[in-house]
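Q: Can I see a sequence and its folded structure?
A: Here is a first one.
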Amino acid sequence: MQTVSLGRRFGALFIDWIIAVLTAAAITGTSYAGSGASGSFVPLAAFFVETTLLVGLLGTTIGKRIFGMRVEGPDGRSIGLLRAAVRTALLCLVIPAIVMTEDKRGLHEIASRSRVTRF
């Protein structure tokens, strides 16, 4: 297993966040840019749903796909919707994602028994 760099992880997260914000704006017809953006949980909810579905079913998000990464379980297969929901919920809390082990696995990955690999 090849360790995935933090740069790749942040790049993928940035792309996935932009997609979530654009999705939220398209669905609600509201702009989330500017002064009121920090108070809205709609983009976060869109991020949670999109990431959970894509990781749980396909093993990757759009951002991860662009950067050549996938999320897998210990057996090398997709982690399923329940574990993906746990992983994404902890990722949305931020702190579990930035507390990492020596092999660059965040607490959200440990809790969901998953890992990010390159393909």
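Q: Show me another, different protein.
A: A second, unrelated one:
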Amino acid sequence: MAGTDLNALFLHQLKDTYFAENAILKALPTMMEAARADDLKVAFGVHLKETEQQVKRLDAVFRSLGEKPEGVTCKAIQGIIAEGQEIIEEFGGSDAGDAGLIAAAQAVEHYEITRYGTLIAWAKQLGLAEAEPLLKETLLEEENTDGVLSDLAEEAINPKAA
């Protein structure tokens, strides 16, 4: 897949997403450690395990394309993760810090949701029958994680931080 067509764009976006997922794998343990609320720690731990599986699914997508799994630097996820680190530094150890961690984690989830939605649409357009269901499975997990984080925020974390 070389060139400037949709195939090349799909591969580039796949590499970007691969980089992002691996960066998230590195960031989640720090977020778990920084969280005060046990439910939030658990949610981050569950998503860490899911993210490990998501990387494996991306590996399978690369293989289905006959490509080597590799990433290209994703400046967007680096910025989102850096903002999460700022929250930890400025508000860590407080109830507001947990609210900030949820906001940072949801920024990551929303980024991933847009990326997977795009990859799915392009996979469908390109007839990548093996890739599409793998990407859909991950999208559903990202959407579920976003919902779990919203519920935690609205029902417990934000009221406590207020």
